[in-house]
Amino acid sequence: MALKEFKENMFDITGGEAGNARMLASIGDAHDGYLKSGFSLAQSFAQARDASKEKARKSTGDITFLTLLENQLAWLNDRIAEAEKSFEERYGEDWREQMAERILEPDEIPQRREGESMEDYRQRLEETLIEKMLDDTGEIKSEYLNDPELREWAQWAQRQYLVKQVEREEAYVNEPGISEEERNRRIAENEASRSFKEREEARIKDTDPDRKAEQAENYDQHRDQSMASDTTTADNQNSAFTLGQS
User: How confident is the model at residue 216 (pLDDT cuts 50, 70, 90)?
Assistant: First the structure.
């Protein structure tokens, strides 16, 4: 077919030149709409990707802080268990009662209640001993620092105090219902605290190889979980972008 005849037939099919112009305009609008849609999807993906990076950065900070708290807690509990094992080997099973007789006044020693188990009674006795040897800020009172035996007992008491402090900090930053902004503020507040820094410094100085290996493994596990979560999020976003283009 000649080119002229093709053009004439084309105009006839589409309703003449006016119809053909409408058709071309419609094609142009569709093309522009597709471009705009693609640009919008790309822009949305970029925003989501940036938000994901920011969330991952904050998540990594959260994991680092919470992992340090877990390591501090494990370290403190290990040191407490070691001390209590040593006390039992040296003083016998009633080492708490012996501490109480030396440290507490007769009227300060808790009496065992009717029906109270020995475990529960000794737990109350521990709390009384801890309160006696530490001040309100958890520092060892001066009268327990000079005698080696009393100082060892007071260090055990202080670590018990610090365990509760770590648990309070963990609950503080993980409080349900708080915003990300408030959560990050609380993490920064705790990281800057003297108590957190002193605990971390003491933990780092610990030369026990088994404890160090266990804490390193704990950190690696948290990091791997975070990276796996971030990878899944990125894959989901890529899939959504691909589907949006099709």
Answer: low
